[in-house]
Design a protein that fits this description.
Layout: E1 6-11, H1 19-29, E2 30-41, H2 50-59, E3 62-70, E4 73-80
C-alpha cells in the first residue's frame, strides 16, 4: 500500500476479522491529519465495544478526536498524527 493515499476513512470495525491488522493498514494509507471514523451499533453480534475500539485505535497510533453517542450505538472519530517519526527521514 502507498502512504498517504486516503484523506478520510469510515468503518464498522466489528465486521472485520482482524481489527488490529485492519487499523494498521488504514494507518499506512491514511494521510497525516486524516480522519478515521468508526461506528458500531448495539444489537450487532459482531459489534466491538467503545472501550475496545478506542484501545485498538490508540495502539495503532490514532488520536481521539470526537465521540458521538447515539441511542443504539456510537461513532468514534480519530485522526492520524500530522507527522510520524518512522516516516521522517534522518538527516545527516
Amino acid at each position: 500500500m502507498h502512504e498517504g493515499l486516503m484523506k478520510d476513512f469510515f468503518s464498522v470495525l466489528g465486521e472485520v476479522p482482524q481489527p488490529r491488522d485492519c487499523l494498521q493498514a488504514i494507518q499506512s494509507v491514511l494521510r497525516p491529519g486524516g480522519l478515521l471514523s468508526i461506528t458500531e451499533m448495539q444489537g450487532d453480534p459482531d459489534a466491538l465495544g467503545q472501550v475496545e475500539v478506542q484501545r485498538l485505535a490508540h495502539q495503532c497510533g490514532f488520536s481521539s478526536r470526537e465521540t458521538v453517542s447515539r441511542f443504539k450505538g456510537f461513532t468514534l472519530n480519530f485522526t492520524k498524527a500530522p507527522c510520524s517519526d518512522k516516516l521522517t527521514p534522518e538527516i545527516g
